[in-house]
Amino acid sequence: MDRRPGLSVRVKLTLSYAGFLLLAGALLLAVVWVFLLRYVPEGYQLLIPGGPSNKNSAFPPNRSALLRAFAPAAAATLAFLLVFGLAGGWILAGRMLAPLTRITHATRLASAGALSQRIRLPGRTDEFRELADAFDMMLARLEAHVAEQQRFAANASHELRTPLATSKALLDVARTDPGHDTGELIDRLRAVNTRAIGLTEALLLLSRANRRSFPREDVDLSLIAEEATETLLPLAEKHGVTIETSGDVAPTVGSHALLLQLTTNLVHNAIVHNLPEDGTVHVSTGVHSTAVVLTVENTGEKLTPELASTLTEPFQRGTERVHADHAGVGLGLAIVKTIAHAHDGTLTLTPRSTGGLRITVELPGAAPHTGR
To answer: pTM for the full model?
Structure first.
């Protein structure tokens, strides 16, 4: 924004200090003058060094001489207060605004890209230090967010490049080898293209959830859980996994499509990252105080807490648990986390002591609608 140049805050504070001090001095001198006029009798003669004594003047000689003696001293006092106020005000304003100058310097560095800059203002808590601490927290979150976005962009570029490079290689082979099996080539290109489309749709869904640009309506997580499990039942049978569902009505407010995607991703993840055979997945819903809870628990290999904490990062698949035929695009739990946060909820991943993972999504609850 273009602004016209003006006085600095330090100059304004200096003038304010000096003006206030000058006004206080003038009021004090006025009080002194009124006091003298009130308590000096009319005919009382004052012995003022250098003062005239003319009884025939238009004014009483005592007050006239008093005024001539008082006025220069008052003027000199006001001049001293003005100079003292300007000098002292300039110094005091500089000391008061020193933290603000430090904050401004850090802000300029941050705007230039130095997000690792921190103010770290010393001293006890006051308004400036609260502002500096809040700014440091904002910079820390912004730095983490930018780093996450950069890492996500790099990973997404790598993931998108892989199917494109594979398609190019297949087409190059077909061009150099006309006798190559066309049907096999088409099937492989279709599989690669399907993966690229799936990744692109996942990226778009992730972006949509991040922007929170979706309509909200009353939904029941228990019905969504039933819908997701019924859809994925054939996949569970193929993997030899048994799905168990339980729970109560869990009303909340949000996007039905996004919450269905969240639940589907969780159940799909629990199915494909399970035991090679005789695995189980348990899906449950419930109401805890003012929140609704969706829990998806599956058997599987033992996981460390460190590995579990990284599974919500984009493109972190936990490769030691992945079945090759359903490896996914690496955005399943990242999408779940984003959708949960977009609905003001939380996502918790807890490794089971016997192997596998327990994932809990907690969302704000809504009053259930009762009808007759």
So the answer is: 0.57
What are the residues facing 365 on neighbouring strands?
A: 252
Contact (CB, 8 A) for 334 and 210: no
156 shares a domain with 289? no
List the domain range (segments joined by +) for residue 350: 217-364
Within this chain, do residues 231 and 329 fall inside the same structural domain, yes or no?
A: yes
pLDDT in tens, 1-33: 565 776 776 787 788 888 888 888 888 888 777
CB 267 within 8 A of CB 228: yes
CA distances (Å), 174 to each of 167, 184, 190, in order?
A: 11, 11, 15
Averaged over 217-225, what is the pLDDT? 93
Please give the full DSSP string across 44-94, using - where no structure is assigned: PPP--TT----TTSSS-HHHHHHHHHHHHHHHHHHHHHHHHHHHHHHHHHH
Domain termination residue (choose one: 163, 179, 211): 211
Residues contacting residue 269 through CB under 8 Å, at least 6 positions apart: 296, 328, 332, 333, 359
State the average pLDDT over residues 281-310.
91
Whether residue 73 is contained in a domain is answered as yes
Q: What percent of the chain has pLDDT over 90?
A: 22
Check whether residue 151 and residue 100 sit in a common domain.
no
For residue 328, give both structure tokens.
Answer: 């996914």
Q: What is the count of structural domains for the chain? A: 3
Are residue 45 and residue 106 in the same domain, yes or no? yes
Is the domain of 171 the same as that of 221? Answer: no
Instruction: Give the strand pairing for 279-288 and 241-247.
Output: parallel
More confident residue, 113 or 226: 226
pLDDT at 306 over 80: yes
Domain end, chosen from 211, 245, 265, is at 211
Residue-level pLDDT at 95: 78
Burial per residue of 249-280, b for 16 or more beta-carbon CB atoms within 10 angstroms, e otherwise: ebbbebbbebbbbbbbbbbbbbbbbbbeeebb
Greatest CA span in the chain, whole angstroms? 136
Say yes or no to pLDDT of 234 above 80: yes
